[in-house]
């Protein structure tokens, strides 16, 4: 079932608030670091004045979003981040509603199924996951985040995001492909994804792995999430792919109706 192209959303100008931006940058840095960091290391990594960095860290510690080791004086994420994440996942969110859909796909199709969010920055975040009983398991967890244009979801981002091909080429070049398809081939696949309403990555992002992604739109027609199914390429032929896509598109439409239906 083809999906009609949607106009890209009008860009909203956001006025920067330095203290907020710096706080978020610190949290992201600590989230990407396996071990704690001292004030100087954090300040140097983010280009902050150490005294400013320390003031922000103290506020984050007081809110339990960051913890500090009394002995080493190193900072790491605090348990308050877990409570925030749990709130996102439990309050009638996409993650909660999509889980039964993923469980059905995993059980009936023998795939690893994921519910993925496309953030305003066009990064890709795994919100929910269901694994099949097959020996193959994809090493991805809830909360995993990937750069934009990754795999099948990345082709949908390119198809619906509104970027020019010049911009998309630069983003494509930054993707850590396992076997890059070549930009001309990838562009053709993006156009095909836009025309038919779903995307496929076979052996490109991870060799030997096929990924299918179907878009989920909100009530205004904005591309916000994807349903993703992945398995070994040898398990998914053309007929099986088409059959699974039809099921995933029906599930995606049901999700849209359930999440954003008026009233």
Question: How would you portray this structure in words?
Answer:
Helix 5 runs antiparallel to helix 9. 45% of the residues lie in helices and 17% in strands. It is built from nine helices and eight strands. Mean pLDDT is 85; it is low at 1-6. The two termini are 27 Å apart. Strands 5-4-3-8-7-6 form a six-stranded antiparallel β-sheet. The protein has a two-stranded antiparallel ribbon with strand order 1-2.
SSE map:
Elements (H helix, E strand, L loop, with lengths): L17 H14 L7 H8 L3 H13 L3 E3 L6 E3 L2 H11 L3 H16 L2 E7 L5 E7 L14 E2 L4 H10 L4 H9 L9 H14 L2 E4 L6 E9 L5 E10 L5 H23 L3
Antiparallel strand pairs: 1-2, 3-4, 3-8, 4-5, 6-7, 7-8
């Amino acid at each position: 079932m083809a999906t009609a192209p949607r106009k890209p959303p009008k860009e909203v100008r956001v006025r920067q608030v330095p203290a907020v931006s710096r706080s978020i940058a610190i949290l992201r840095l600590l989230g990407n670091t396996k071990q704690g960091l001292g004030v100087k290391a954090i300040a140097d990594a983010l280009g902050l004045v150490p005294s400013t960095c320390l003031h922000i860290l103290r506020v984050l510690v007081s809110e339990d979003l960051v913890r500090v080791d009394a002995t080493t004086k190193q900072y790491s994420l605090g348990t308050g981040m877990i409570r925030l994440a749990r709130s996102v996942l439990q309050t009638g969110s996409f993650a909660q509603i999509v889980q039964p859909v993923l469980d059905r796909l995993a059980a009936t199709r023998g795939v690893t199924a994921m519910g993925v969010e496309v953030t305003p920055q066009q990064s890709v975040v795994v919100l929910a996951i269901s694994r099949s009983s097959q020996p193959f398991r994809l090493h991805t967890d809830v909360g995993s985040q990937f750069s934009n244009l990754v795999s099948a979801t990345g082709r949908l981002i390119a198809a619906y995001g509104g970027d020019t091909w010049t911009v998309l080429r630069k983003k494509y070049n930054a993707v850590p492909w396992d076997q890059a398809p070549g930009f001309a081939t990838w562009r053709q696949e993006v156009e095909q994804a836009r025309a038919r309403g779903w995307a496929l990555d076979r052996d490109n992002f991870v060799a030997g792995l096929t990924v299918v992604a179907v878009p989920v739109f909100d009530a205004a027609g904005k591309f916000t999430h994807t349903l993703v199914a992945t398995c070994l390429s040898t398990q998914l032929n053309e007929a099986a792919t088409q059959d699974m896509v039809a099921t995933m598109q029906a599930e995606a439409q049901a999700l849209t109706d359930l999440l954003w239906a008026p009233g």
